[in-house]
Amino acid sequence: MRDTLAGYAALYGGPSSGPASAPIPAANEAEAPPLGYALAQLHGIFVLAENAQGLILVDMHAAHERITYERLKAARDGEGIRSQPLLVPLSLAVSEREADLAEQHADTLAGYGFELRRAGPQALSVRSVPTLLADLDPKALVLDVLSDLREHGSSRKLEEARNELLSTLACHTSVRANRRLSLPEMNALLRDMESTERSGQCNHGRPTWVQLTKAELDRLFLRGR
Amino acid sequence: MRDTLAGYAALYGGPSSGPASAPIPAANEAEAPPLGYALAQLHGIFVLAENAQGLILVDMHAAHERITYERLKAARDGEGIRSQPLLVPLSLAVSEREADLAEQHADTLAGYGFELRRAGPQALSVRSVPTLLADLDPKALVLDVLSDLREHGSSRKLEEARNELLSTLACHTSVRANRRLSLPEMNALLRDMESTERSGQCNHGRPTWVQLTKAELDRLFLRGR
User: B222 and A214 in contact by Cβ < 8 A?
Assistant: First the structure.
């Protein structure tokens, strides 16, 4: 885990300006997790954590989205994105163009964990969704994937848009923002971030967490060091 | 409480620079306490609280010291600082000069809640201390007061140094820093701050709390508004 983290901290140790100049934890602090331990949730948006350096703020949604993205990517480029059958297949009303695209790209979609069958001129039956996204709304998920297919319809373009598709999928974890997290859930998120490469930056290039050091906190209180 | 707070917020709404430009809560938010509700303690130094505007950081010790100072001042200028007898009088070895001063200024000391009796050429017996400071170490407290007496020994100078003496007394609440506070204790501190005039600034002119607004937190994450 240290290796992952060293790279992670070096690449994404907070934003490039402002009070978020996150130092890489020193070697002798290897026992303590770099992102510390969760204290509380703020406004349903941030997780506050205490580490040796000071206060950590985590953009819950951005961090979670990034972790999902990296996991989907690792799965797709590795053993494949796992698929989970829905208990009851979902009937979906779509446009004829979307139904055509779903049929045409059935193999590609299967590679992303989706099993969609044509159920009529303007209807699809959703049989399976990616396991990693199984607790999300399957309807919204499939409609967004079809929207991506419509935009990058040709096979060649779709190949180029591979990561964009993953990004679209990961973005659906946004429904989890504003959820009340328990302290163990928050700590699990922190540990996931530490063990996920590139988790320090969201898909739009913004930091998923920032560090306010003790010295920076002192400066807020006009206390010199 | 609103009146106290309006004055307090107007006078001390955070420091004059940096991210702490605390807005005064709008009238329709009168129901929610301006300093919000405590979330957690950070590094034994800060209390983190959530209010409608964002995140509140409180310098626990500075806030507590200020509250004690204002209470001692209000008591002295009002019905007098209440005194609490020690269960067992404390024998204190002091210099002859200090013992002389304690005798000479017995009335003044009584006005501050201290009853000290001479117990020998270089000895005092501490009988009572200020009720507000009854849970502090009486020995350290009395030695500091005697030190102030030594410095401002003449009656005239002592009169001028009245608030300095209060400041010395309030400073002893510092022993409470680094204490683990429960959430109810933290919330009690926040409510005390709201109901104490001038509690927004410590005796050395630094803020006792700062507000990080949602917009400021967003900026840390490079999210524009």
Answer: no
CB contact under 8 A, B54 and A48: no
Residue A119 to residues A94, A95, A110, A111, A134, Cα–Cα distance (Å): 10, 12, 17, 21, 22
Which tens digit of pLDDT belongs to each residue from B46-88? 999 999 999 999 999 899 889 999 999 999 899 889 999 999 9
What ipTM does the predicted assembly reach?
A: 0.73
In chain A, the number of structural domains is 2
Which two structure tokens, joined as six digits, stand for B16? 């004059």
Q: Where are the beta strands (DSSP E) in B94-170?
A: 115-120, 123-130
- Please report whether residue A73 resides in a domain: no
A220, B18: Cβ pair inside 8 Å? yes
Where in the sequence is the domain holding B87, given as residue range(s)? 82-173
Q: Given this model, what pLDDT does residue B135 score?
A: 81
Tokens found for residue B149 = 């007496």
pLDDT in tens, B157-197: 666 778 888 888 888 875 455 678 899 999 999 999 999 98
Provide the residue type at A76 as one letter.
R
Please state whether the predicted TM-score (pTM) of the whole model is above 0.80: no
- φ, ψ of residue A62 in degrees (nearest 5): -60, -40
Query: What CATH number is attached to the domain comprising B96?
Result: 3.30.1370.100
**Residues of A at the B interface (Cβ-Cβ below 8 Å)?**
15, 18-20, 39-43, 45-46, 48, 50, 54-55, 57, 59, 62, 206-207, 210, 214, 217, 219-223
